[in-house]
Design a protein that fits this description.
With 232 residues, this protein is an alpha/beta fold. Helices cover 44% and strands 18% of the residues. It has helices at residues 3-24, 43-51, 62-71, 91-97, 107-120, 146-156, 174-191, 206-211, 221-224, and strands at 33-37, 56-59, 79-82, 100-104, 124-131, 141-142, 159-165, 197-199, 216-219. Strands 1, 2, 3, 4, 5, 6, 7, 8 and 9 form a 9-stranded parallel sheet that branches. α4 crosses α5 (107-120).
Amino acid sequence: MSRREELAANLAEVEERIAKACEAAHRDRAEVMLLAVTKTWPASDVEILYELGLRNFAENRDQEAGDKVGQLRHLVEARWHMVGRLQRNKAKSVVEWADQVDSVDSVRLAEALARAARAKGKKLDVLLQVSIDGDTSRGGCAVPDVEELAGVITRSGDLILRGAMTVAPLTMKPSQAFEALASVVSGLRDHHPTATRVSAGMSGDLEDAISHGSTCVRVGTALLGSRRLTSP
């Protein structure tokens, strides 16, 4: 089986899972974005997925992503998301290639991204990463701090708050985490009307996420296979 055939088969399976989950939740399939997590995979895989119809791709390492995006400038409709933990000193570099940063979890990071976006003359879409269980050592903003961070993002004028993201902690059932995130986003919308997106669910738990209102599922392994140990 060629790589194209492999990826096409994987994509068909993922699309079927999403469609069935949407049907079970009485939701329109169009409400849920499939974000292909292409970290550690070569640019050639992104090209194949693009040819198969995908347009949204996620990376988690700045240097790898910058190189990859540079190779793929000809994919003019591709939209790139930064989903990994991000250090403030990488803000300027990330703004060069990312259309959206999905992992904003501190005031200082938000301020650094705002400065970098302003210097580049662009408006940067961001998601606020939420730590549902409060263990911020793994990334994410604790729930009680969400509104403060959202305010900083909105007032910056250079960042557009599009919603929130979480990774289900191992200490909770995924359904509990996704329900909690949906509640956080519902509260955000009261004061930040652009914050409509709920990014939750990955290869193993996308059905649970969709049933709890996720508007974006981040899928790597189910699309591309087991993770490579080293970057190409």
